[in-house]
Design goal:
Distance between the termini: 32 Å
Largest sheet: 5 strands, antiparallel
Oligomer: single chain
Structural class: alpha+beta
Helix content: 25-40%
Strand order of the largest sheet: 1-2-3-5-4
Strand content: 25-35%
Radius of gyration: 15 Å
């Protein structure tokens, strides 16, 4: 059974990510998510939001982002909706890790942390909906040191 744990809407301004991370942390704490997994999930969602701000809205602070958090029978689901130009999922790839330069690791972190992620079009038909999933039973595993 799908249960909505929380939702937040905010403008595409990097400073607003602090509020999103606080809400996400509190929500994950409320469902008993262990600290090591909580940190990884907050990192992945934050990186996804930063990608929307930088690449989707290209720094336009008027852009809006919606984060919805659900629990579907032990699977945490993070739905990130934006209203920027539709993204081509085939072009969303992490940069090679041997390239020494700042940035470009957000997609890598998302791939390593989440069990599944995919892009789709929101019900409105405009923008992007990124769905990221993580099995909650994996919360009992040891922290990943491969990041």
């Amino acid at each position: 059974m799908e249960k909505r744990l929380g939702v937040t809407r905010f403008n595409a301004i990097p400073a607003r990510l602090h509020e999103m991370r606080s809400m996400l942390t509190a929500t994950l704490d409320a469902v008993g998510c262990p600290q090591h997994l909580r940190r990884l999930l907050v990192l992945a969602v934050n990186e996804a939001c930063m990608n929307v701000i930088q690449h989707g809205y290209r720094g336009d602070p008027a852009g809006e982002i919606i984060l919805e958090i659900l629990n579907n029978n032990g699977e945490l689901e993070f739905r990130l909706t934006d209203f920027a130009d539709t993204v081509d999922p085939a072009k969303v790839k992490p940069r090679p890790l041997d390239e020494i330069r700042p940035g470009g690791l957000g997609t890598y972190f998302i791939q390593r942390i989440m069990d599944e992620f995919r892009f789709t079009v929101p019900e409105s038909g405009k923008g992007n909906l990124l769905i990221m999933k993580k099995r909650f039973d994996k919360a009992n595993e040891a922290p990943s040191h491969e990041l």
